[in-house]
Amino acid sequence: MTHLAPRSPRRLRRLAAVAALGVAVSVAATPTAATARVAPEPGAVQVEQEGAPVEQEGAPVEQEGSHVEQERVALEQECFEPGADIATSARGGQTHDHREVDVLEQRRIEQRTRDILAAEGARAASRAEALAGSVPVYVHVMAAKNGAGNVTDSQVAQQVQVLNASYAGQGGAGAANTGFTFSLAGIDRFYNDTWHRDGASTTYRSQTRKGGANALNIWLVDFDYLGVATFPWDYARNGKVDGIRVQYSSLPGGSATNYNLGETATHEAGHWLGLYHTFQGGCTTTNDQVSDTPAQSSATSGCPEGRDSCSLAGLDPIHNYMDYSYDDCYTEFTAGQSSRMSQMWAAYRA
Question: What strand order describes the sheet that includes 45-47?
Fold first, then answer.
């Protein structure tokens, strides 16, 4: 899988930073892909952003390592979708693309969600119904100074169309209509080489994020992953960086071979709405906390029909958006996943 140009030194630095922290690039929710960050580019240009601060030439820059602890905490809370140039068995990347969430932590999250919904009662349900009709989407194009990564408005519009089709159950027979729709609320563009490479990500997200808990912010960058997502239960403490980061070449018509139909954003938005991978926890009954997604031992690569990696009932759900299959293999969310997303929306985003 070579749809992204190999960046071995930078990739190794990222992985070494993760290893040094003792973190398995794995599940749970909120900011960043490396510990040591390059300073923002002096004289960087940003446009189409009302009221946003403009970087001044000669302004103080972030010192390497000055945000290590902040980035470490962020890393431990975020879900990573690795890029296809990292050769392993998963969706173009590592077997585990987020910090490990064990069964005990899953139980704590589930209990917290039940408690919130019970306390809110009918009010939470009515708020969720009122707000879930349309998710406002803010797309932040983080281009390089030379224009690399500056996707077109048409590509952004097509990406939103893909989100709507996937979440409406239009992928295939048996796919659930989740009830979630997405409307493009705005596009802004920044020309900053550091931000384009996902450097100083906590800073750029904090400065550019728009909307409240119900607003999906998508930052389009060029990094060693296909996508990165935050989870809804972390919004209260890390709302300023809430959203998903997506490899710009994975948008419809992009250059990411096997991953250029726009489904990376579908997958990452699933995490943003509270879904785990279908292979979460491996071949266990707990698995992804959804009863109608058969357990699987490991992530899928490609689209291997009939794959059965787990002795428990059912074939691997290779067509599910929360597995790691190729874009053209994806066809569905299940009814159980739809229900879970609605519950998480009511508890944390409504």
Answer: 45-47, 182-191, 135-143, 216-221, 244-247, 225-229, 79-82
Measured in whole angstroms, the distance separating CA 106 from the mean position of its chain's CA atoms is: 19
Over residues 152-203, the pLDDT tens digits come to 999 999 999 999 999 999 999 999 999 999 999 999 999 999 999 999 999 9
Q: Considering the domain 103-280+335-349, what is its CATH architecture?
A: 3-Layer(aba) Sandwich (3.40)
pLDDT value of position 278: 96
| Structure confidence by residue, pLDDT tens digits, 247-274 | 999 999 999 999 999 999 999 999 999 9
3-class state of residue 184 by DSSP: strand
Close Cβ partners of 309 (under 8 Å, ≥ 6 residues apart): 283, 296, 297, 298, 316
**DSSP helix/strand/coil, 239:** helix
Global confidence as pTM: 0.76
User: Considering 41, 71, 263, 268, which one is annotated as catalytic?
Assistant: 268
For residue 119, what are its two tokens? 């306390």
**Residue 94 contacts residue 26 (beta carbons within 8 Å):** no
Is residue 81 annotated as part of the catalytic site, yes or no? no
Query: Which ranges of the chain have pLDDT less than 70?
Result: 1-102, 122-133
List the structure tokens of 91: 């969706």
Structural domain spans, the chain: 103-280+335-349
Reported in sequence order, the residue ranges of the chain that DSSP labels E, i.e. its strands, are 45-47, 79-82, 135-143, 182-191, 216-221, 225-229, 244-247
